[in-house]
Amino acid sequence: MTAMVLSCALAWAVFLALHLVLNGRWWPWLAVSLLPPVALALVPLVLLAAAAVTGGGLAAALAAGCLLAAWPQNGINLRGLLAREPGEDGLRLVSWNTQHWNQGGDPDRFYAFLRALDADVYVLQEYLNGFEGGEVWDIDDGERLRAAFPGHHLAVGNNSVTLSRFPPAGPPVPVGACSLRVDLRAGDGVLSTYNVHIPVQLTVMNPLRPAFLRDMRRRAAARDREYAALVADLRGNPHPVLVTGDFNTSAAIGDIRRMPPSLRDAIGACRAVLPASWNARARLRLWRIDWAFTGGGARVGSYRFRDAEGLSDHLVQELTVTV
Asked: How many angstroms separate the CA atoms of 178 and 212, rounded?
């Protein structure tokens, strides 16, 4: 039994070494890094327990090393255990992937849900319609949006919608092909909001078909372009920034390391120990692929995920921001 536990620990150590080296650097590893991030903690913890039972010292050391090496990628938020009062003052913002903008649903219910969120700024993704074949087409719901949110300014671009009670400081700026920057006059300064939607890694199809690898390589290249455009714009932006949306990237996917180190992940203000935003329709949610970052003097006071009431496969990000 001790030998079996050691073999499992060695196998996991080899896998983890490959993951740490190839993740975010070699495009085929995108498929492997789709594993639930918490597995990077659960597997070594199980190995540690098994080593304790069997008395395998080497296996225990390997498991502990794996646990520590992969800790930044397991998605666990230990700061959620700290008792503190959330900061509710500041700009109230929601960020949400609407999953093809209420396609096939009840528009009255959809807009009632949006209004009930009662935000100063709405950052909404997937302002489009589509179907499983991958084809999408643009929509124009501007008239209804203006009627539903008469106190908000509307900015549309790159299949994204930003609604704000604060006036824009300039025209919306497309970032790459899938994200939208909107500069807002908040107080005496300007806050740059980035409405982000990074392309998904793969299409669900037979992985043995050559088309699967071709599609994944094409999508990996598109993700590279979108991250590069986002980071380039952020580095040239002198204003406080709020970067949020659907990154289609979990903590276990190396692409998230591309975000500039000057940005702060909002998860520090979240009380959830295992925060997850997808799949909102499943009872067990294991992936956080929706993120929020601040920088340049912007700070998050509170941050939480809210149920989407069956309207999307993404939970809603709710946060307060001060500049």
From this structure: 22
Give the count of beta carbons closer than 10 Å to the beta carbon of residue 62: 24
- CA atoms of 157 and 71, how far apart (whole Å): 37
Residue 162 is which amino acid?
T
Per residue in 58-91, pLDDT (tens digit) is 999 999 999 999 999 999 999 999 856 666 679 9
Distance, first Cα to last Cα, the chain:
57
Question: How many Å apart are CA 58 and CA 192, to the nearest integer?
Answer: 51
State how far the alpha carbon of 75 is from the alpha carbons of 66, 139, 170, 291, in Å. 15, 35, 36, 12
Contact between residue 182 and residue 231 where contact means Cβ atoms under 8 Å apart: no
Closest CA relative to residue 33, chosen from 252, 198, 207? 252
Determine the distance from the C-alpha atom of residue 306 to the mean position of all C-alpha atoms in its chain, rounded to a whole number.
14
Q: How many residues does the chain have?
A: 323
